[in-house]
Amino acid sequence: MATEAAVTARDVSKSFLMGRQKVPALKGVSLGVAAGTMTALIGPSGSGKSTLLHLIAGLESVDSGELSVLGRPVHTSGQAELAALRLREIGFVYQDFSLISDLTLIENVRLPLEGAGIARKQAHAAAGEAMARVGLSGLEDRFPAEVSGGQQQRASIARAIVGERKLVLADEPTGSLDSKTGIEIMEILAGLRDEGVTVVLSTHNPANLAYADETAELSDGSLVSLTERSSAGERS
Ligand SMILES: Nc1ncnc2c1ncn2[C@@H]1O[C@H](COP(=O)(O)OP(=O)(O)OP(=O)(O)O)[C@@H](O)[C@H]1O
User: Fold this and answer.
1) Is the CB of 51 under 6 A from ligand 1?
2) Which of helix, strand or coil describes residue 229?
3) What stretches in the chain show pLDDT beneath 70?
4) Which of 27, 118, 122, 188 is the most exposed place for a label (fewest CB within 10 A)?
5) What homologous superfamily is domain 5-100+166-234 in, according to CATH?
6) Which intervals hold domain ABC transporter (predicted)?
7) Mutation test of ligand 1: which of 14, 18, 47 has the most ligand atoms closer than 8 Å to its C-beta?
8) pLDDT of 69-84, one tens digit each?
């Protein structure tokens, strides 16, 4: 297994202001994610899973502590640097797929590359490759409403990996899917992990943990346990 760190959090804290009240979302979380592994974040609703994913993605800024993502110290990075990292190197998968309804699947998948200034023809070819990797060849010109929820989530994963992104963050990627389709999505994420992509996901579904190399449990903003699963590579 690769030992290089894709994510290193040291004593990371984050609060949100609710009116005048400060709500702590993460309290001194320290966590390492090795490159090419899958880590599952678990814990009750409100325990801080989404907040941690948003900090890693650079969608929110760290209040205190150190957070390094793909070798960059994001706790000291400016907005422009974070936006560039997000656009070029990190993919985000949402529970509700978050595809643009009036764009075709391939147009959705190539969006991050176009946003990064890559020419449309090249972006289109890379998007086709990403769609093939998640089993969507032949559905490039369908609109999101013309495919199943599982296929929409595959397209969302293709958008997250397009252009050879090495870090995929997924916030409850199977939360809107039936259990069979959820398993298909976890198989795809595990397959990407086996190809060297680092995956960090949040989940409420215990069945998903069988695919993870490591499970990090949050409770009330604190990391309360870290479980390594040596059997992650031995699924049938
Ligand atoms: N933008 C925000 N503004 C105010 N409070 C927030 C914001 N985002 C998160 N919080 C608060 O931070 C805490 C952690 O929330 P977070 O969404 O990270 O939990 P979660 O574990 O992902 O929950 P769920 O499983 O329901 O998605 C909660 O108390 C939540 O209300």
Assistant:
1) yes
2) coil
3) 1-3, 230-236
4) 122
5) P-loop containing nucleotide triphosphate hydrolases (3.40.50.300)
6) 7-236
7) 47
8) 999 999 898 888 888 8
